[in-house]
Amino acid sequence: MGTANTGKKRNKVNVFNITLLGILTAIVIVLQSVGATIRFGTFSITLVLLPIVIGAALIHPLAGGWLGFVFSIVVLLTDAGPFLAVNIIGTIITVIVKGTLAGIAAGYVYRLLSKANNFVATVAAAATAPIVNTGIFIIGSYIFFLPTISEWAAGAGFTNATAFIFLVLVGWNFVLELAVNLVLSPTITFLLGYARKRVVSSRTTGQA
After folding, report:
1. How far is Cα 8 from Cα 67, in angstroms, rounded to an integer?
2. What's the whole-number mean pLDDT along residues 187-193?
3. Which of 185, 80, 172, 75 is CA-nearest to residue 123?
4. Alpha-carbon distances, residue 49 vs 11, 36, 147, 148, 151 (angstroms)
5. Mean per-residue pLDDT for 154-166?
6. Could you give phi then psi for residue 44, rounded to 5 degrees?
7. Residue 149 CB: number of other CB atoms within 10 A?
8. At the topology level of CATH, where does 2-200 sit?
9. What is the rounded CA–CA span in Å between residue 20 and residue 143?
10. Long-range contacts for 153-156 (Cβ within 8 Å, ≥24 apart)?
């Protein structure tokens, strides 16, 4: 009987995870597609890191990686034009790596810290995603686009490319992404975690 109940609980968890991953994938696509039209500075703000963190924390780090990959594909299709015009391969590598690793890193940070404190783990995961996403973007900018960015910087009145990268290409976009994640991720993850526990623990009297 114990084995049967364990199997039923596992099935419920699997169904919940698959359903949640599907919902979060759709949210990522819609948010990024709409968000690509909303700009704060030169490029659009990335708000889809929120569902990526939720999936990474509640399902699995690889689920976060999948959501980050989906996010990356939408970015390539909607918001990477200026970089694609400069270096197609470099853009594809940078965008896919930064999105995918942001989700995976957030998931593993959550797993590591949740053993000690779930709230701290969630906040840390929420901070990890935008830090990794932005950090890899900066690295990719130096590796693949520095000559072009230097021209952009000169045209905008900056004396060097580094200042332009941090103040214009990253700047407030990163601050807003980090703030949104830190404020909302812990609350939403807590609510969804509670919902998952209810799904797992809910059993009819006849199953006892």
Report:
1. 27
2. 75
3. 185
4. 28, 14, 29, 27, 30
5. 91
6. -70, 155
7. 22
8. Arp2/3 complex 21 kDa subunit ARPC3 (1.10.1760)
9. 36
10. none
Instruction: Quote the CA–CA distance of 190 and 169 in Å, as a whole number.
Output: 33
Phi, psi of 40, deg, nearest 5: -130, 85
Please tell me the distance from the alpha carbon of residue 11 to that of residue 37, in angstroms, as a whole number. Answer: 40
pLDDT for position 206: 42
How many residues are recorded in the chain? 208
Q: What is the pLDDT of residue 176?
A: 81
pLDDT by residue (tens digit) across 67-102?
A: 999 999 999 998 888 899 999 999 999 999 999 999
Give CA–CA dist 36/160, Å, rounded.
Answer: 27
Sign of CA dihedral 31, 34, 38, 39: positive
Dihedral in degrees, nearest 10, Cα atoms 57, 63, 64, 67: -140
Q: Compute CA distances 16 → 13, 68, 186, whole Å.
A: 5, 20, 19
**Confidence (pLDDT) at 9:** 59
Structure token pair of residue 117: 């404190």
Which residue from 87, 88, 124 is spatially nearest to 106, judged by alpha carbons? 124
Tell the residue number behind the tokens 């889809």, with chain if given.
48
Cα Rg, the chain, nearest whole Å = 20
Which tokens hold the place of 124? 């840390």
Neighbour count for residue 188 (Cβ, 10 Å) = 17
CB-CB neighbours of 2 under 10 Å = 6
